[in-house]
Every structure is written in structure tokens, then in C-alpha cells.
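Appendix B, record 7
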Amino acid sequence: MLYPPTLNRLIEALRCLPGVGPKSAQRMAFHLLERDRDGAREHFKKALATRVCSYVEYNTAQAELTRQEMLAQQNKEKVEADTVRIRAVILARQDQAVRLTAGNRELEVAKLERDAAAAQAEAILLQSEAEKEVIRMKNEAEAEVITGKVLAFETGMNLARYRLYERIGPRIASILSTDQESGLGGLFLPYLPPKKEVAP
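C-alpha cells (predicted):
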């Protein structure tokens, strides 16, 4: 339905109020017009000003609340991002520290193994030096014994004959003392008188 422009402006003004729809705005406008028009205008202006101020204050408060919520959300996201970044840094540093510790441990083990190998090589060298010294001393002692024997037999040839007799003497005795045919005594069996049988 078409209304005069002033009435339309009044209805539109009433519709701006929170919770007021088109029908409610029309009813409110007609109610105001039925009563005192001048008073209605003044009353409407005051009510509208009060409502508009309340509406503006309400919207300002809502805007501030929304801004605060957005700031809180931004701060929350920033804190979460900082927490993730700090955790990543801490994990990276912990991993670095673990790797550094493992590397240092491996280095110490390698140093100990190197020192052990060096000590073992030195021990082998010392042992070989000692064995060489023992062999040298043994050879010198044997040489002194042989020199003493040579001096005792007056010549080396006499010592050699003695050593030969010393080695083959026991064997000759065992060869000559056997009467078996396979031994040296078996050579003399054909020259021996026949064996006599002893009567029982």
C-alpha cells in the first residue's frame, strides 16, 4: 500500500530499530499518528534519538567486542605459531645436542682405540726387542760354551770327533750287541760254532 512520503520515512525510521520488522514499524507509525501529531513528532524524535543512540552504542560495543575477539584470536594464533616455532627450535637444538654428544662419544672411542692400538704396537715392539735380546744372549752363551769346549779339546776338529763319537757311540753299541740276523752281529753268525742241544 502506498503511504505519503512523510509516513514512509517514519516507517523506515522505525524499521531501523533493533527487532522491529515492517509490520511492527507500520503499527508503531499509525499509533503515533493517531495520537498527537506534534507530540508524536517530538516524542518520536526523542525516542528515535534514544533508540538510535542505544543502537549506536550497542553496535559500537558489538564492534569493539568483535575487534577484541579478533585480537584475541590473532593473539591465540600468534601464541600457537610461536609455540610451534619454539618447539621446533627446541627439538632442533636437542637433536643437534644428541648428535654432537654421539659424535663426541664416537670420537672418544676412536681415540681410545687408537691409543690401544698404539700401546699394543709398542708392546709388540718391546716384546720383539726382548726376544731379540734373549736370542742374542742365548747365542752368545752357546758360543762361549762352544769356545770353552774348543779350548778344552785344543782344536775344533777334536771337538767335532768327540761330538760324532758321542752321537753314534750308543747306536754302535746297540748294533754290535745284538745277535739278530738283521743286525751287525748277524755278520758273524756263519763263523760261530753250531749250537748244541741240551738234553732234557
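Remarks on this record: The longest helix spans residues 37-153. DSSP finds four helices and no strands in the chain.
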